Amino acid sequence: MTFHPSYLHEVVLKILKAQPESSPEEIKNAWDGFVLFNPGLGHPNLAKHWKPTLKFLVGTGKPILFTAHSKIDAKRDQQVLE
Q1: Could you please report the per-residue DSSP string of 27-80?
Q2: pLDDT tens digits, residue range 17-47?
Q3: Which helix (H) or strand (E) holds 25?
Q4: What gap in Å lies between CA 80 and CA 74, rounded to an integer?
Q5: Dihedral (C-alpha) 30, 33, 38, 41: value to the nearest 10 degrees?
Q6: What gap in Å lies between CA 17 and CA 73, rounded to an integer?
Q7: pTM of structure
Q8: Would you say residue 66 has pLDDT above 90?
Q9: Can you say whether the dihedral through the CA atoms of 49, 53, 59, 64 is positive or negative?
């Protein structure tokens, strides 16, 4: 298990810079699934920052688990995902 305190698309860019020989498929297969603890996907100040990461996550086809601080937070996140 690896913890990255940043958006995943930023981690992927770092990997690509450090390992330019890696293919996009190799990078997608580096993880078995993803957990986003209280990401705030639907929060007005955060939503735009999540778009590149969400695009990557969905493109991997891997399982994604989300948690939320509250029902309001969960509902906002759900709206972004739909």
Answers
A1: HHTT-S-EEESS--TT-TTTHHHHHHHHHHHHHHT--EEE--SSHHHHHHHHHH
A2: 888 888 878 888 888 999 999 999 999 998 8
A3: helix 24-28
A4: 10
A5: 80
A6: 34
A7: 0.79
A8: yes
A9: negative
